[in-house]
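Lab manual, section 2.4: Encoding a predicted structure.

Procedure: take the sequence of the chain (498 residues), apply the prediction step described in section 2.3, and record the output as structure tokens. A sample record is shown.
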Amino acid sequence: MVVKEVLSIRGLKKSYPGVMALKGVNLAFKAGEIHGLIGENGAGKSTLIKILAGIVKPDDGEVTILGKSVQIRNSKDSSRNRLCFIHQELNLVTYFNAAENIFLGHSYPRRLRFFVDWKRLKAKTKEITDALQVRIPLDTPVSYLSAVDRAMVAIARAFAVSGDIYFMDEPATALTDIEKEKLFRVIKTLKSQGKTVVYVSHNLDDILDITDRITVMRDGTVVECRETLETTKDDLIRSMIGKSLESAFPSREGKAGAVVFKAGDIHNESIDGLSFDVRAGEILGIGGLVGAGRTELLETIFGARGKDSGTFTLNGVPFRPSSPRSAIEQGVVLVPEERRKQGLVLSRSIYENISMMSLGDISNFGFLNHRVIRNRSEEAGEKVRLKCSSYSNHVGTLSGGNQQKVVFAKTVLQEPKLLLLDEPSKGVDVGARFEIYSIIRDLASRGTAVIIVSSDFNEVLGLTDRILFIKEGRMVSLKDNIDMNQEKYLNCCYGRDS
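Recorded output:
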């Protein structure tokens, strides 16, 4: 049986000042398939999707749907052609509740033509969330929802209207494994109904698990399109960046030095009696399942969350951070999980973002020395191999990987004694991950003690020297990362190997 192409793209081009985002892309999607779209940040994936969504206007090229050439000038044209989207940026109105956000941009059910029928709106929203098998507080403003619930609101919005082709740009980034499985079940149901799903993700395991075909993009062009069953993760990595999986993590160098940080019997609402230490040049991983208290531990050390009892010492001296600013002044820095909300000011320049934690060191009598700011920011940017056309550009114009490098550059300027990392490669492509891992290992080799939290088992196994496993805020075990594998790692997370 010949499966027809429902959407074809020919010669699609798009340029921005100084950047050619798409260089004549040719691509086709078939009816009833799950099509993976992968590539490093800046490869052109999001630009392609924004063009099909009517957000960005192409410079040249043709889009055909069911053999008919179409013009997509705005989101209405996109909806008219039955294209549905889950964008990487959730674009939720935080003071609207979940039900209002799910139908945002669609027609609210009406009564007497002029009034919103709130009862029907809530009922229709519940139908969608029931189909997704998720529970979201529908009357709660989105600003009060968790990251997982906000992501599910954005996903549910894509299903508020019926479509033929669904484009999903990093839909599972903030989801737990359970939520991700629910999403995958919905995707497979769409496929069984003859719908087409284009799934964009940096998570190659997800791509290999869910898709039928995979297209690899690099530097604004399509490198190759291949059947998923004939593809391995190493094939994809080589196609994307020209490196193999074995070279993903930098080698460990040298031995750990003296104890830099020590926690003794820490208690608060999330932590229950944790005691451990970290040495100079050591990378300590915090292993555990979602909800184990890993992020809460980092926030407690950083002074963003209080402790009820217990002690911290830093280089043998009592460490009592009253706030994040206090922690930074004493040499402890956190790279947060939500870099766009907590680690960067997207509307400010790269210079300003890199230097924002160091303003006290680069000012004279309260006046900023902009020449010093530029010089030091560029030096830090070079150390983390930041790629940008100008340090005067807004951080929001950078790819996800380069945004994360800006956060690391800001950290490098501080020369921290203790570096706390919460999901350091979240939403970052494979190539940028390799560079970020090298930055982390380089900081450790210069004597910085590092604590890392990551939901990526391979990341923890590949980077760390020791792993502290916690469950419900309590220590399960502390292991040297020797001969550790995913099976042993999971056993430790569940407390089966204490």
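Check your result against the sample. The chain has two domains: 5-241, 259-493.
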